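in:
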């Protein structure tokens, strides 16, 4: 399968969609001085090539009452329990991200909670999973960088 090549127009389309996935193709077309059909075709090709995997909706969790963020490193008794533990973690809706990792932790999770009391309950749920040896928690004081565009622009410079 040939590698899909992105051009400047594709880069601009992705730039606008990363900024707001709900931007109408007609608005993108007007800003780029191309037809909406061209935008549609290019987005479709990027989806078919697996470059665009879908679109997401960003929520303001603080306004929803879930501003508390913590990261929990999980140590397992045995690495053979990874799949089982991940299945149990997946049952806890306040764990929003989980990575199998190398290094200090076997699994590294991001949790969202209402406050410290709620976070404690979530962390205790993680601790209680069979196969978890112990956990180590870090509290996020502030999300200082969350910028998908910088990485995308860096990638564009190398391809």
């Amino acid at each position: 399968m040939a590698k899909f090549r992105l051009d400047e127009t594709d880069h601009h389309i992705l730039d606008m969609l990363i900024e707001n996935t709900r931007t109408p193709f007609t608005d993108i077309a007007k800003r780029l001085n191309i037809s909406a059909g061209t935008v549609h075709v290019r987005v479709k090709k990027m989806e078919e090539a697996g470059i665009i995997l879908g679109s997401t909706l960003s929520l303001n969790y603080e306004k929803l009452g879930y501003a508390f963020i913590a990261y929990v490193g999980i140590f397992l008794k045995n690495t053979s329990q990874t799949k089982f533990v991940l299945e149990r973690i997946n049952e806890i809706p306040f764990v929003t991200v989980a990575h199998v990792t190398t290094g200090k932790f076997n699994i590294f999770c991001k949790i969202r909670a209402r406050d410290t009391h709620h976070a404690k309950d979530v962390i205790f749920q993680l601790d209680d999973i069979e196969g978890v040896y112990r956990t180590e928690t870090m509290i996020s004081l502030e999300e200082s960088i969350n910028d998908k565009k910088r990485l995308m622009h860096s990638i564009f410079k190398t391809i």
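note: The beta strands are 68-76, 95-100, 107-113, 132-139.
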